[in-house]
Amino acid sequence: MRPLSIHREDWDERRRLEAQLLRAMTVFESVAELEALYREFGRHLEEVEPDLQQERARYLGMLQGRLARLEQVRQEGAA
Amino acid sequence: MTGLVAALQRVQQALSEAGIESVAIGALALSVWGRARATSDVDLKILLPRERGAYLLDSLPGYTPMVEEPVETLRRLGFLFLRGPEGCRVDLLLADTAYDEQAIHRAVEMEVLPGQKARVCTAEDLVIYKLISTRSRDHEDAETVVHRQASTLDAPYVEGWLRQFELALDDSTLVETFRGMLRAAG
């Protein structure tokens, strides 16, 4: 059995390599990757849309609520 | 199947003609600044008062609301799902806080595919939107942005807003999480 520290080093190395690859990508390349993912998975995601839409609504509600909370605190601070 | 960038351009053009400022957030902005992930929609923040939902819908005649009573939904929740003419779902979120307004004004228009331009939130604002979320996937997304943009990120700007969110949300981990990502990015 390998010591945990070696697994950790492997993981760190993998993250470093991924970061290097990301930095080497151009905007056109990464947006083209998004378009390819959309072509491959977009239709499937649309098929599960009723579930997806509920999840999206919960998510966006959470995000808007957290933004609104900061706004409220700022306004209370200014008053 | 029309592409996401084409769908984004179409809705941004219609919003612009109506005098409504908008900025792409979500998966498209993530693919510009970080790592792409699968999506079925385009997400935009729009600068519009809550009570102007009817004007918004009048400005987007080819777009079908995906909820009943869309004007009331937008007023109450601050967001709205639409189905675009090309079939793509468009999620519109009101930018009705000082932070959102700043994010919209800092947005950049850029060529995201050859010959195709879009107005996209900055890498810094995308990191902030992702880090204030409670969803772990958003933190993974933020990490890809920090890893890709590390040397160019305006860290004081990000930390300044995250400090305010820490106080407002009673969450003392945001700045340290961001700094940890910066350290990991080297």
Observed structural traits:
heterodimer; A: 79 residues; mainly alpha; extended; B: 186 residues; alpha+beta; Beta Polymerase, domain 2; 2 domains; 5-stranded mixed β-sheet; two-stranded antiparallel ribbon; 9 helices; 7 strands
Textual characterization of the structure:
The complex is a heterodimer of chains A (79) and B (186). Chain A has 79 residues and is mostly helical. Chain A has one domain. Chain A is 91% helix and 0% strand. The longest helix of chain B has 15 residues, at 155-169. The model of chain B has no long low-confidence stretch (mean pLDDT 95). By secondary structure, chain B is of the alpha+beta class. Chain B is globular and about 45 Å long. Chains A and B meet through helix 1, helix 2 and helix 3 of A and helix 2, strand 5, helix 5, strand 6 and helix 7 of B.
Short description:
The complex is a heterodimer of chains A (79) and B (186). By secondary structure, chain A is mainly alpha-helical.
Helix content of chain B: 40-55%
Helix-strand sequence of chain B: HEHEHEHEEHEEHHHH
Strand order of the largest sheet of chain B: 1-2-5-4-3
Counting helices, strands and paired strands, the structural category of chain A is mainly alpha
- Note the total helix count of chain A: 3
Give the terminus-to-terminus CA distance of chain A: 62 Å
What's the main sheet of chain B like?
Answer: 5 strands, mixed
> In percent, how much strand structure appears in the residues of chain B?
15-25%
The assigned CATH architecture of the largest domain in chain B is: 2-Layer Sandwich
Query: Outline of chain A, from the CA principal axes?
Result: extended
How many domain units of chain A? 1
Radius of gyration of chain B: 17 Å
- How many DSSP E strands of chain B? 7
